[in-house]
Amino acid sequence: KKVSELIRQNKPVYAIDTADTETHFKRSELIVKKFLDLDLETDDLESFLRDFVMPTSEGKL
Predict the structure, then answer these.
(1) Backbone angles phi, psi at 37, to 5 degrees
(2) How far apart are CA 20 and CA 11, in angstroms?
(3) Which is the most buried residue in 4, 40, 48, 50, by most CB within 10 A?
(4) How far is CA 34 from CA 2, 13, 42, 50, 57, in A?
(5) What's the Cα-to-Cα distance from 35 to each of 16, 17, 26, 52, rounded to whole Å?
(6) Would you state the pLDDT for residue 55?
(7) pTM here?
(8) Tens-place pLDDT, residues 12-50
C-alpha cells in the first residue's frame, strides 16, 4: 500500500536492505573487479560475458 501511494505521488521507492541485496552487491562487485582486470585489446570480451558475467549474475558461480 505504501509503495502504491509513493508511486501515485511520483516519489522514489527505496528498496529495503535484505540478505538478497547484500548478495546482489557482492556479485556486482565481483563482476566489476574481474572486468577491470581484463585487457580489452587481447581478452575475449564475449566469452567473459558468457562464461563469467552471466553465470555470476544468476548466482551459478
Answers:
(1) -80, -15
(2) 24
(3) 48
(4) 39, 31, 15, 13, 13
(5) 28, 26, 14, 10
(6) 93
(7) 0.65
(8) 988 777 778 888 889 999 999 999 999 999 999 999 999
